[in-house]
Specification:
1 helix; about 45% strand
Length: about 200
């Protein structure tokens, strides 16, 4: 030691300082971890919310009413419905039911496994076990299109029909026109008439 240096006596550290030297870095690390965890959870929830927002809204038991171009009322219902992604004017229908002239003596009911209603075009496309029921008989096909503007029903798939008086018919396609007064069958039309007994 040199003559100019005077030894300085160190004071003993207080227990509080010793404790803080250990606790404060621990608190800093815990705070940093909490911030990181919060950021990760926020990003995860944001991705989940965006995924939910991208899913279409599902309606249960929707009902659409209107009139065709000739003033005849129609009602379209279904078990569920949802708008197609990217096509806001197209609505997917599960188990749709179309009723033309509801409550009238010549009411026609059409059911199917699925359908798409195009609001812009005013058209209902039906697919899968499409069944027509009216006072004149029943018909079945795999696909049909109802034009809500004209009231016409067109089918490009094979059709089987049974009349109320027992006649049977098969064809490759059909068109229901003139308020149902006129049905045109095309493509391999076969008819069976049963005489009255």
């Amino acid at each position: 030691m040199s003559a100019s240096e005077v030894p300085v006596a160190r004071r003993p550290r207080s227990p509080l300082i010793a404790t803080l030297r250990v606790v404060l870095p621990g608190v800093a690390i815990a705070t940093l971890l909490a911030v990181v965890v919060a950021a990760v959870l926020s990003a995860w929830r944001g991705a989940e919310n965006r995924a939910q927002a991208a899913r279409p809204i599902e309606l249960i038991g929707p009902r659409l009413t209107g009139e065709d171009g000739k003033g005849r009322p129609f009602v379209i219902t279904s078990a569920t419905a949802e708008r197609e992604l990217g096509a806001a004017d197209r609505i997917k229908l599960h188990e749709p039911v179309l009723v033309r002239d509801p409550g009238a003596s010549d009411q026609t009911k059409v059911t199917a496994d699925s359908g798409i209603y195009d609001e812009t075009a005013g058209r209902l496309e039906l697919a899968g076990d499409v069944r027509f029921t009216s006072p004149d008989g029943t018909s079945t096909t795999q696909a049909a299109t109802y034009d809500a503007r004209t009231g016409e029903v067109l089918g490009t798939a094979a059709v089987r029909a049974a009349g109320a008086s027992g006649q049977q018919l098969q064809a490759g396609s059909f068109a229901v026109k003139d308020k149902g007064d006129s049905v045109v069958y095309k493509g391999g039309v076969h008819t069976r008439l049963n005489p009255k007994k």
